[in-house]
């Protein structure tokens, strides 16, 4: 047996990838009350764009359904929901200041909103906008949580399955100012398939927004788990795909309904490198070195070398859990 | 809008699943030196079986390649490796005491070993054995890490791709003394596909063993990541599948080559509920309530309700990372 013991300079030099940095920031949004106007929310978003820019940000992540209160907690007719909470166009006169600030600040962003298409289909949607204020990608939420029926005994509703259709655009990635970027929304972040499909398209970053109630209406889940399961989902999926993950909460108490904060930026090492402390409007930011992900994608998670899709078939062949395979 | 605020007794009662407990233990194994005999290792394993039983264990998890030193770190001819480190049968005269203790103690177990089949194929293998000392399931490692060529500049080798064939049995689950149990080995634990395929067969627990060098020979990875990435992989995959995960290290310094410890038992909440502290032989144990996983599998991870395999196709259609889909 032959076993050399010295790590040579040759093997260490494999470590010297050129840094490739991105100013990456998350704009956590405190509560948006039912009666707050979209104009007031847009002003808060634009203020955080200016702060992020002043701290070196080149890309800023806003929450899911950022323009209004988290309305799926309320039971109402679909028509009423669409009239009050959905966007018919993006940008629109009311959201145009966000795009104007993007252009002025040369700052890209991710934004979540409720989308009603011209042919009347409702989606929980997000967009990626580049530093020239151009929409380069759109995503429509695939993993809709909650229920579609009225649960009068629950302290609030979670009616995403009532108000939204399942997204029809898949999990795509978009080259955005030199960075290959994927996105998802809220509950998607708990599903490993979400990140894997984007990593298989060579994503370097996945960005997302969320609204996560502090109380689980379906069973008496210990409250602290709402935050810990959020964080380990981001951490493990960043690591297991060698990508950066940036996640923006809408949080705090919206008309008495509390949602978790803990917006976070996670490195491809699985480590949380920035995390919000408040449950209010708060910008967190890092100078993200994209080259860090390459070490993981070239070695432990070199998909071409190590993945064995012939043994993964059940992932696409089955939807629900079933019996053992023979 | 109609929004009830009281959590009724009706909805709380959905929380009262009958407990279904399993005495679950992990037998971490300290170093096995190159010149240690298999007999001496088996004696250590049997001693830990007695300790686990005395602490209420009904099932005990041993490490990967538990019977010898972690030989893939050494460059040698395949013939030499097979002669010195592989098992031609299981049980064999030398491993029979483990099975005898299983029967005597009414204690099931998971054991990893190098398997040479009767037709000469080499696998990194594990078995699940029930409380009657019967082998109920076998697994052959699918995600073989490392390399097959000689890396003379590296401080040691990681030659699993040289000494082992890729497993040919898939990721299966086995009903074992009333518990639906899956298994994997070492590097498999970092791949979300591993757990998902077993969760789609209604696994309640996944057990595994590992040998993880403290030094990454491929790039200058910060040492602490070797442990943190191990733990977040267990945690997130336990949570995201609503399963218990129990992982046993072989650890400490084998002839100067150090491996991480941190054997752990993780609940379906994603929380580490037991963790080894030493880098020696050490038993950790919990009384695992299997019903906890059901809350997650019925609600947030109700696969039938929420999964969308039509958007996961790339996971089985692609092996390596490629270009964006249109």
UniProtKB/TrEMBL annotation, chains A, B:
Keywords in alphabetical order: Hydrolase
Report domain CN hydrolase positions. Answer: 22-292
Q: Which CDD domains match?
A: DCase
Q: Name one Pfam family in it.
A: CN_hydrolase
Gene3D superfamilies listed in its UniProt record? Carbon-nitrogen hydrolase
Q: Domain of life, per the record?
A: Bacteria
Give the GO molecular function terms.
hydrolase activity
Extract the InterPro entries matched here.
Answer: Aliph_Amidase/BUP, C-N_Hydrolase, C-N_Hydrolase_sf
Can you name this protein?
N-carbamoyl-D-amino-acid hydrolase
């Amino acid at each position: 047996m032959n076993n050399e013991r010295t790590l040579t300079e040759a093997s260490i030099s494999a470590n010297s990838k050129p840094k490739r940095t991105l100013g990456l920031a998350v704009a956590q949004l405190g509560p948006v009350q039912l009666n707050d106007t979209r104009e007031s929310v847009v002003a808060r978003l634009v203020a955080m764009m200016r702060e992020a820019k002043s701290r070196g940000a080149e890309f800023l992540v806003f929450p899911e359904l950022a323009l209004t209160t988290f309305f799926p907690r309320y039971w109402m007719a679909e028509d009423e929901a669409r009239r009050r909470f959905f966007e018919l166009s993006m940008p629109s006169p009311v959201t145009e200041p966000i795009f104007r600030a993007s252009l002025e600040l040369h700052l890209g962003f991710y934004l979540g909103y409720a989308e009603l298409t011209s042919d009347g289909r409702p989606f929980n949607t997000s967009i990626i906008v580049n530093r020239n204020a151009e929409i380069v990608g759109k995503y429509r939420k695939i993993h809709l949580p909650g229920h579609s029926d009225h649960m009068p005994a629950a302290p609030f509703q979670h009616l995403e399955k009532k108000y939204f259709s399942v997204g029809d655009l898949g999990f795509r990635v978009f080259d955005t100012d030199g960075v290959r970027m994927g996105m998802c929304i809220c509950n998607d972040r708990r599903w490993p398939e979400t990140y894997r499909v984007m990593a298989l398209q060579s994503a370097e970053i996945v960005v997302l927004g969320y609204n996560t109630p502090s109380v689980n209406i379906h069973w008496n889940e210990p409250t602290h788990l709402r935050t810990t399961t959020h964080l380990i989902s981001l951490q493990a999926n960043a690591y297991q795909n060698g990508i950066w993950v940036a996640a923006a909460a809408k949080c705090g108490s919206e008309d008495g309904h509390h949602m978790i904060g803990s917006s976070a930026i996670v490195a491809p090492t699985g480590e949380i490198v920035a995390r919000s402390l408040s449950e209010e409007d708060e910008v967190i930011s890092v100078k993200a070195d994209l080259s860090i992900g390459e070490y993981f994608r070239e070695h432990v998670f070199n998909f071409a070398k190590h993945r064995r899709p012939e043994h993964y078939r059940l992932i696409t062949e089955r939807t629900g859990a079933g019996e053992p395979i023979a």
